Amino acid sequence: MLTILHPRKNRLLAECDSSAYQRLSAHFELIALDRGDVLYQADGKMASVYFPITATVSLDYLLEDGGTSEITRIGNEGMLGVSLLMGGGRSAGRAVVQTGGYAYRLAAARLMEEFYRGGPLLRLLLRYTEARLTQISQLAACNSHHSTKQRLCRYLLQMLDRSSLNELAATQEEIGAIIGVRREGVTDAARWLQELGIIRWRRGHVTVLSRAGLAEHVCECYDVVRHATARLLPDLATATPGLGIVWRPSGALPPFHFAEPERRLPRADGAGADGDAGQSLLTFV
């Protein structure tokens, strides 16, 4: 039985063939990540790739006025560092931890050495890259054509897919930047979902009470991405009656302590580095 923090709790690594996995796993490094940690700078060199277990990471485009726009988000279904597979050695955006938790770090050179061997790992990673590109293109279409309520439902469902909890971490401004609306729009949509009994919302926290309720009001973009992923990576998803294709559950996070704490960036709220990596609350401030 796999432990909660086993590398194969990352669903992409779980589908890696045994020989490639054995060669790579000897070089995995389990690290703790806090919300706000920066893993890649925009146009920075990608010396490592990351396989999240309980953390989620966003890849953000930096605007000239200092604002940001989220390009994509990665959780335990995938890998941060896909552009390496297409020959790029630098990050297209800034990679920031959005949900504190744990991930496995692997030197980029080790991954590329295995990638260029060919075989099952190469085909798996190329299919994953296509699924990621589908997600990014569908996000652009969704933010242009669908209502704030639909987009918020999509965002919450996708975050649930990458987490073992029904509570998520984000601010109104961050959600607004992701789904392309102002903070007030997020507030109105969240209040509407609460009135329907789908979420419980009070200042500081949102808890999803009904995944089926979110699925009822979401736009088609959520299913487009799910079915594209199921087609390209069928072993990463399973069918659930009433909800169609959903990600496999990944389990809850137990207490975990490192012999030597990871060095990480200071937190904006002043919390300690080892405080709450793995806490997952949707915070509206």
Number of strands: 11
Which geometry do the CA atoms define?
globular
Largest beta-sheet details: 4 strands, antiparallel
Q: Overall pLDDT, averaged?
A: 79
| Strand order in the sheet with the most strands | 2-6-4-5
Annotation field: number of helices? 9
Helix/strand class: alpha+beta
**Rg:** 18 Å
Give the termini distance in whole angstroms: 40 Å
Poorly predicted tracts of residues: 238-285
Helix content: 25-40%
Strand fraction: 15-25%
The topology string of helices and strands comes to HHEEEEEEEHHHHHEEHHEE
Q: Would you mind describing this structure in some detail?
A:
The protein is an alpha+beta fold and 285 residues long. Helices cover 35% and strands 20% of the residues. The strands form 4 sheets. A 4-stranded antiparallel β-sheet has the order 2-6-4-5. A 3-stranded antiparallel β-sheet has the order 1-7-3. A two-stranded antiparallel sheet has the order 8-9. A hairpin with a 2-residue loop joins strand 8 and strand 9 (205-208). Helix 4 runs antiparallel to helix 9 (221-232) and helix 5 packs across helix 8 (211-217). The chain is globular and about 55 Å long. Mean pLDDT is 79; it is low at 238-285.
Q: Summed up, what is this model?
A:
The chain is α+β, with helices and mostly antiparallel strands. The chain has helices spanning 11-14, 18-25, 108-115, 120-145, 148-161, 172-179, 183-195, 211-217, 221-232; strands at 29-33, 38-40, 48-52, 56-62, 68-74, 94-99, 101-107, 199-202, 205-208, 237-240, 244-247.
